[in-house]
Amino acid sequence: MAAAADGLLREGYGTFRLLCLSLCTEAPSIGDFLRINEGCILGRNQLGSFYDETVEQCKGRCGNDYSCRSFDYVHTYRSCHLSTDNRITARAAFDSCPSWLRLQTDYYEKVTELLSVNYFPGVHLLHSPTHHTAAHHHQENHDNMAASNPHHHQITATG
């Protein structure tokens, strides 16, 4: 089934506007990290905090620890905060990240399963030519989400 040039799918009983996720050929692999700019899961650093670290060192720490599911990286302090949670298991902590902290922090989540629409609730996946691409939404869906969601984040996949 192919969509018409107008972005509509006409099939059997009706016409549907295509606003669904479009999977790309360069989806992140198991073990890659999804970066969410200006995000954090506040107070969930069960695996420790490390200072004077680079993002790459922090990725290495989390990547080498089976129980690590995500980390926050605070740029101003070059600090790495490892967690056994992710934004799905600690949704309230992710949603309540204060703005003063969000501005200096990026959230990284280890890819541990196949990507699905349910794996990315309330976020928009953007194509980034310098990173692997997980997926992207139709522009109309992006505009609607940005207008209705104060916690709208940009996600890119990094290896």
UniProtKB/TrEMBL annotation:
InterPro entries: Pan_app. It comes from the Eukaryota. Coiled coil: none annotated. SUPFAM superfamilies: Hairpin loop containing domain-like. Residues 150-159 have a biased composition (Basic residues). Residues 24-112 form the Apple domain. Residues 131-159 are annotated as: Disordered. This is Apple domain-containing protein. It comes from Branchiostoma floridae (Florida lancelet).
